Amino acid sequence: VKTYNIGSILSGGGSHPHHDTDGPGVWFNMVKRYQEAALSSSSGIPLLYGTDAVHGHNNVYGATIFPHNINLGMMNDPDLVRQVAEATAHELLATGIPWNFAPAVSVARDIRWGRTYEAFSEDPRIHEDLVTAMIEGMQDAGVVATAKHFVADGGTYLGIDQGDARLTESEVRAIHLPPFIEAIEAGVLTIMVSYSSLNGEKMHGSHKWLTEVLKEELGFEGLVLSDWNATFQLEGDFQTQLVTSVNAGVDMLMLPQDWQAAHGELLQAVRQGRISEARIDDAVRRILGVKAMQGLFDDPLIQLDPENYFATDAHIALARDVASRSMVLLKNNDVLPLSGHETIYLTGPAHD
């Protein structure tokens, strides 16, 4: 961080500072060390530290775990969704982390999609108030929200994850784009790009959707973030993949293992004229803008007292309330109880 002036660090899903039992104090000390390194770099620009707290601060031992978005959608109560977002933000800030890679605003159109549980609904109308409540609740509480994954990740053919959404533009605009419009109107500061394709074109390489539609037509002025190693799914060698994604409109690259190589390749691509300095300036301006709006230049490290903000009795009670309100009663048509003589078909890679 200090040597390369790295602008952002993330704790990926399932990661932790040292052990999976690390609590908020250990997490804060890790974030603090990274932030101190950034502040002592030649730029002195603070880090924007992020993590995937998609249903509570789920990487941290002892955190309050809330139901996933599919349950929040079934509950369909914007006030309670706002409370969940606020509670999650408070637990993030108890570890010093100001950026959340959530919420997923996917419209899940095929139940076979393995990430359906991250979506509020198959109906974009359900998203209207819930997306606003989630983003405003999180950002008003002091954490940068991320709307993901742009666009149509829940509309792929046969529900194949990271697959191809074979849709007309009017279908995309009618079904999958509205939640992102809601997110932008709610003031979301960052948007993550989808692994998936649209009619054969990888979203990470789509200048039309990332720049012409998202940035220009919809007026999104925040930070556009790639997904984990998603650029490797583009055509060409490593530099060409980076050039394609950056020129398409990606402002920050999530390259957890290959960041150092990417740093050198991007510098070379700019020197060769494959990426314009104006495009780099636009990306940097957007990144710095998010950091400024988050107040990191004034106070680069904030920690809420874990005693009062992490896994509190109020948060646990809220999680229980939301879980109970989102339960769905199914009609039993002589299926239960099982007699023990049924023939039951188990399928899928985890069937054993």
Give an account of the 3D structure:
The protein has 352 residues and is mostly helical. It is 40% helix and 8% strand. The chain contains 12 helices and 9 strands. It has helices spanning 24-39, 69-75, 78-93, 124-140, 169-176, 178-185, 207-217, 238-248, 259-271, 277-293, 306-309, 313-325; strands spanning 8-11, 48-51, 99-100, 146-150, 164-165, 190-193, 197-198, 201-202, 223-225. The strands form 3 sheets. It has a 3-stranded parallel β-sheet, with helices on one face. A 3-stranded parallel β-sheet has the order 4-6-9. It has a 3-stranded mixed β-sheet with strand order 5-7-8, with no helix packed on it. Helix 4 packs parallel to helix 6 and helix 8 packs across helix 9 (259-271). The N and C termini lie far apart (44 Å).
